[in-house]
Design brief:
The chain is an alpha+beta fold and 810 residues long. Among the domains are: 199-255 and 337-406, Penicillin G acylase, beta-roll domain; 557-588 and 595-679, Penicillin amidase (Acylase) alpha subunit, N-terminal domain (Orthogonal Bundle). It is built from 26 helices and 29 strands. The chain has an eleven-stranded mixed sheet. α3 (75-102) packs across α7 and α10 packs antiparallel against α12 (243-252). It starts with 9 loop residues before the first helix and ends in a 9-residue tail after the last strand. It holds the Pfam family Penicil_amidase.
Length: 810
């Protein structure tokens, strides 16, 4: 989730701490009263409420896990009710989401002791995400517009008519939310497009590396599956000093989260035990508490829709509608380019274009900052897009130049919300294809199936056609040689139906082969997860239960592949001998109760640093991840990287492997003792499910922390990604499958769902973290049942009425 990458400012924590200090200093009776009052501030989930604008009565039945099953006579009322329950359970999350997209975080969290929120606001204002969201409202069809309108009405009805206090975050910050708008919902899609299309950071890093390394060395750092031509800066840029300026810009740009990843596979009826398709999907994003996702089901006379929603958005992002089911993974195509623009030496308000100098489009943005004066930001745009180098200060690139970002996700003529609305209403596979052709950004790989048995995959989105260049480094903007000439037509994008082998599998690996005639990307995610899924599927038939188990698989193929190479080198006697003895008998399973995963990941972490840090210098931090492909490439084809450039000696790969193991084991011993057999992966690999404000506060931090030790690793299907550059917690599980779904087209009521935390965003709610263990251990829920069945199972019933019936009127 994007929000979690914006740390809190010191004043926020000070204010929270003062509030708690007051509570703790009061007599126990008052403390008990405060705690009781806090527990009492729960949304109303039973009885009857009037909801203005409803056309008919709506019943919201919350099951034992707090999942709302909304029974309504018409769809529009269903959207109103969804907005209402989203606001009841996740209002703070919704508030932070829209403020992030609008560039208004600093209004709430301030910047006196840290400028992360202000950096984020500057970026969002520069990119103009919220302005684009506002402009997109006019593109919605009448039916889609009615859905977004109704949802906003539901949110605002809650804000106007709630009986309970606002969530504790609002109280501690002294903040009250504004009314909800359609643009507040639409901006989430823009945020996801930005996070899932982060190629521009890679372009900046490559440009900086090319100032100190050869083209071949840069290729060594990013080895790809298909052969690539060496990456080279354009002739016009080779003499420009892109190094220091680009480094400052990389530091100035806020980190929008870890690398994104997801899994999906679809089986035809010929490959299932039911004779109908099965789809498995688990999107991987940054972990947080509460998690991004919120489960919900809406039942109308026309049908049912169930699955994963995002608070703030009226539509189901993932799931099924009783007729079709679908899942997403990110394509990782290259849909962003950085253009180096040349400023007119006689007039700084103009920049060079192929047909002469043109004026920048400029506007001023006022950013309000809590506790200090407003900041005025001047945003400039060129014919390619917004100037992002102004974020660090004028002319961060070489003097007389700026960097502009071209990205379809910034477009105002973005029909992605309409595509999702139509996908939610698709009756069959053909309707799915028709709906998603409207999708703009980010490009996604969508698997889908219908009850008739058709299975397909399609990768919709705007993919630029470049006149020249491959999109991997910044290019000159003044010549026109590298301009985009349009976008790939929808019929040329990757798509297929009913595969002969009975399966589609994608885990962010290359979606196309070498024979694909167009360029989607030059770099693809490591194919290990996809290969493991294919290995598990084999040529057998599978059940829904099989798919759910496969989602939890924890075998690391890179560990199996790389360990024989590492273990062939001699190691020092003592603890290193003990550790490698454990690894020789290991099957690559990243189990939380075993020492081998911890030893291997620590070794790989140090080996990546030992091999690459000396050549990369200050740029290594931006490169530091588990680079198993790059290391395999070094051992097989480029052993020169093993020499430490900072020493007069010439080190071999054997030297560097042993050194990295010694360093890793010394570090692990300090934290876990000197006996490797007693170490456990789970002691350091814990899912970071913590509240981004309250986790920093004494007392409340421990009360709200849902963190739990987990299996899996960076390369496993059950992904447990870490942030190696974090010296305090390099193996913490910060990124993974916050949602899992398995859809049974033979009986969609038999589909399985789970999220990582719980439905509520209130830490004192029973549904704050009641799904954590279920999620960690591979359990799931079924979103099904008629009114009678749910009532018999103990569901709470909240009746929303369009008029006052005299019962619990607010």
């Amino acid at each position: 989730m994007l929000l979690q990458r914006i740390p809190l400012s010191r004043p926020v924590l000070v204010r929270v701490g003062i509030a708690l200090a007051v509570v703790l200093a009061t007599p126990p009776l008052l403390v008990g009263g405060w705690y009781g009052w806090m527990r009492g501030q729960q949304p109303q989930t039973t009885g009857e409420l009037t909801l203005p604008g409803l056309e008919a009565k709506v019943e919201v039945l919350r099951d034992a896990k707090g999942v709302p099953h909304i029974f309504t006579a018409n769809e529009r009322d269903g959207y109103r009710a969804l907005g209402f329950v989203h606001a009841q359970d996740r209002l703070w999350q919704m508030e932070m989401m829209r403020r992030l997209g609008a560039g208004r975080l600093a209004e709430v969290v301030g910047t006196r002791y840290g400028d992360a929120a202000l950096k984020s606001d500057r970026l969002m204002r520069t990119l103009g995400l919220y302005r684009a969201a506002e402009q997109m409202t006019v593109l919605l069809s009448p039916d889609a517009r009615a859905a977004f309108d109704a949802y906003a009405d539901g949110v605002n009805s809650y804000l106007e008519r709630r009986r309970e206090a606002l969530p504790i975050e609002f109280q501690l910050l002294g903040h009250r939310p504004e009314p909800w708008t359609i643009a507040d919902s639409l901006v989430w899609g823009k945020l996801m497009a930005l996070q899932l299309s982060g190629n521009y950071r890679d372009e900046l890093l490559r440009a900086r590396l090319l100032k100190r390394l050869s083209s071949q060395q840069v290729e060594d750092l990013f080895p790809a599956d298909p052969p690539n031509a060496p990456v080279t800066l354009a002739a016009e840029l080779r003499d420009l000093d892109l190094g220091p300026g680009v480094g400052r810009l990389l530091a100035a740009l806020p980190d929008l989260g870890p690398d994104t990843a997801s899994n999906e596979w679809a089986l035809t009826g010929a490959r299932t035990t039911t004779g109908k398709p099965i789809i498995a999907n688990d999107p991987h994003l940054a972990l947080d508490a509460p998690i991004l996702w919120y489960l919900a089901r809406i039942v109308t006379p026309e049908g049912t829709i169930a699955g994963a929603t995002v608070p703030g958005v009226p539509l189901h992002i993932l799931g099924h509608n009783g007729k079709v089911a679908w899942g997403f993974t990110t394509t990782h195509s290259d849909t962003q380019d950085l253009f180096v623009e040349k400023i007119d030496g006689q007039d700084a308000k103009r920049y060079a274009a192929p047909d002469g100098f043109q004026p920048f489009d400029s506007r001023n943005e006022t950013i309000r900052v809590a506790g200090q004066s407003d900041e005025t930001l001047t945003v400039r745009e060129t014919r390619h897009g917004p100037v992002i180098s102004d974020l660090e200060g004028a002319d961060v690139p070489p003097a007389g130049h700026v960097l502009a970002l071209a990205f379809p996700g910034l477009a105002a003529d973005d029909h992605t919300p309409e595509a999702l609305y139509r996908l939610n209403h698709a009756d069959n596979a053909e309707a799915v294809r028709s709906a998603v052709r409207l999708h703009v950004a980010p490009q996604q790989n969508i698997v889908y199936a219908d009850r008739a048995g058709e299975v397909g995959i399609i990768s919709p989105g705007r993919v630029p056609i470049r006149r020249k260049g491959d999109g991997r480094v910044p290019v000159p903007g003044w010549t026109g040689e590298y301009d985009w000439t349009g976008f790939l037509p929808s019929y040329t994008l990757p798509q297929a139906v009913n595969p002969p082998n009975g399966q589609f599998v994608n885990a962010n690996n290359a979606i196309v082969g070498r024979d694909y005639p167009y360029r989607l990307a030059m770099d693809w995610t490591d194919p290990a997860r996809a290969q493991r899924i294919i290995d598990m599927l084999g040529d057998r038939r599978h059940s829904v239960e099989d798919a759910a188990r496969q989602q939890m698989d924890i075998v690391s193929l890179p560990a199996r592949d790389l360990l024989p190479e590492l273990l062939k080198y001699p190691v020092p006697k003592g603890i290193a001998t003990d550790a490698t003895a454990l690894l020789r008998g290991w099957d690559g399973s990243m189990a939380r109760d075993r020492p081998e995963p911890l030893i291997f990941e620590a070794w790989l972490r140090e080996l990546t640093r030992a091999v690459f840090a000396d050549e990369l210098g200050p740029d290594f931090t931006h490169y530091w991840e588990l680079r198993s492909r790059a290391l395999r490439h070094v051992f097989a084809h480029a052993p020169r990287w093993c020499d430490d450039a900072t020493t007069p000696e010439t080190e071999s790969c054997a030297d560097i492997v042993a050194k990295a193991l010694t360093t890793a084991l010394d570090d692990l011993s300090k934290r876990n003792g000197s006996t490797p057999s007693r170490w456990r992966w789970g002691d350091e690999h814990r899912a970071v499910l913590s509240h981004r404000i309250l986790s920093k506060v004494p007392l409340l931090g421990s009360m709200t922390d849902l963190s739990i030790e987990t299996d899996g690793g960076y390369f496993t299907v059950n992904r447990g990604s870490t942030r190696l550059r974090d010296s305090a917690a390099p193996f913490a599980h910060v990124h993974g499958a916050g949602y899992r779904g398995v859809y049974d087209l033979a009986d969609l009521d038999n589909s399985r769902f789970v999220i990582a935390t719980g439905q509520s965003g209130n830490p004192l709610s029973p549904h704050w973290g009641d799904l954590v263990s279920t999620w960690r251990d591979g359990g799931s829920l079924r979103l099904t049942g008629d009114r009678g069945t749910l009532l018999a199972a103990g569901a709470e019933v909240l009746t929303l009425t369009p008029r006052n019936t005299g019962a619990q009127q607010q």
